[in-house]
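Changelog note: in this version the structure field was regenerated for every chain. One regenerated record is shown below for reference.
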Amino acid sequence: MSRRLALTLGLLLALLLSLPSHAQDGRSKVPINRTISGFTLGVTTTAEARAIIQRQGGKIEDTQAGSDEEVYVIMGLKYARRSTLSVGLYFYKGHLRRIAFVFNNLDVLEQIESELVDKYGTMAEGVGTSKEKVKGIVDAFTTLEVVRRFDYEGHIGFECAYIAYTDEELERAYSAETESEI
């Protein structure tokens, strides 16, 4: 599941980044919080993340490592005081590049999305697939996205969803490196 999740999250980020930058909605009205559930984008190291996970009662279920990247899949953590199905932490050169909170409860996701819209403003709808709906909001340093996945084409049969925060600077560096490897 973790490799599939990592690939899906990467693909969806690429789709979100394809949103038109001139869209009136999709720009945060206030800076997007960079410390989420105790993890700080661009700052938290892998060692610090392991300590935070342990302190919060989570468990690392799976890890993947490349030359400059690591991915942790964690169970047992909460986001916005709500239980998650899992949490993905994505590190680049030892620092947190992205954090994704996965949910399998659509009502919970919609409650959180409403709170995010109240705080940051209207999210722009991105180009997804026939099995995905993507919304996002950005500021100068951070992308926040809400993605719903469905079992069937035409957005039928809710499968799961995630809320992800991405450090833009680390994402650009990571993308440039992975593109040069192709």
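Spot check on this record: Confidence is low (pLDDT under 50) at residues 1-24. The radius of gyration is 15 Å.
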